[in-house]
Amino acid sequence: MLIALLGASAQAADANPAVSAFARALRTEARGVAEVSVFFPPRANPTRTAAVLPNVSVYAGLLRRNFEVNVGGVERVAGRDATRLTLTPKVGDAARWTVWVDRAWNVPLAFEERSADGTLARRAALQQVSGVRARSRAAPVRPEGLRRAVLAAVPGLACPAGFEPVAVSVSGRGTEVQLSDGLNTLVLVLATRNVQTAPGVAARRVRAGAFVWLIGNLPARALSAALTGVRDVRPDALGTFVAPPPSKE
């Protein structure tokens, strides 16, 4: 019975073609010449070349919960047949994605992220493919109890629809909480100074020397609404969830 249940669970996981392709990409990557363009946040030189597509941190459970996945037709990418997948958020104003998955290898050959208004935020696509290479990357995991700790550290925070806390770290900006809806990422910063608001950046002064910022590809109203009810900032409440800063050695 246990074996049967495990088998059914594995089949259910593979039933989502986007989850299947991104899971496969943890073990196998297509290589060649890729063009990578990032338009959000804006930068002077948005386009570069690379040998592989950039990594995408995918939380499978959140992706299944938050996105409708539609399987489109077959298109040519870098001379290979690829199935077009369209991933549309079920709720909220998060970005939608299109992913082109190699029909033989079941790994992404290209992807693009578009804001809720349709503006292209980033695109990465292999222009030439030389083959595939094995690799080993662990799938990201949401720590149990992190949501409760984040809400204790930032009472009154209203996570945007679909987003959940997935990781905590410390940077030069302050304590950073990463939020994910499975594909899209926001960064909540608990800081001791304010920051100027801009497209993709909302900020709120909570009290003297305590500020919260929310950064990511969401409309300004959605970012601001998440912070409106914040009453305090208590980084110590995050306890052992805070990852140590990377070693300089």
Written overview of the protein:
This protein has helices spanning 2-14, 17-25, 60-66, 146-153, 220-227, and strands spanning 28-38, 47-50, 67-77, 80-89, 96-102, 108-114, 120-134, 164-171, 174-180, 185-191, 201-207, 210-216, 242-243. The model is unreliable at 1-13 (pLDDT under 50). The protein folds into 2 domains: 30-134, Clam (outer membrane lipoprotein receptor (LolB), chain A), CATH 2.50.20.10; 146-243, 2-Layer Sandwich (Phosphorylase Kinase, domain 1). With 249 residues, the chain is an alpha+beta fold. It starts with a helix and ends in a 6-residue tail after the last strand. Helices cover 18% and strands 41% of the residues. The chain contains 5 helices and 13 strands. The protein is elongated. The protein has a 7-stranded antiparallel beta sheet with strand order 2-1-7-6-5-4-3. A 6-stranded mixed beta sheet has the order 11-12-10-9-8-13. The relative contact order is 0.15.
| CATH level-1 class of the largest domain | Mainly Beta
Strand-residue fraction?
A: 35-45%
Low-pLDDT regions: 1-13
Please identify the structural class as seen in this structure.
alpha+beta
CATH topology of the largest domain: outer membrane lipoprotein receptor (LolB), chain A
pLDDT averaged over residues:
92
What would CATH call the homologous superfamily of the largest domain? Lipoprotein localisation LolA/LolB/LppX
Query: Order of strands across the biggest sheet?
Result: 2-1-7-6-5-4-3
Q: What summary fits the major beta sheet?
A: 7 strands, antiparallel
* Overall morphology: elongated
Intertermini distance: 50 Å
Number of domains: 2
Write down the secondary-structure element order: HHEEHEEEEEHEEEEEHE
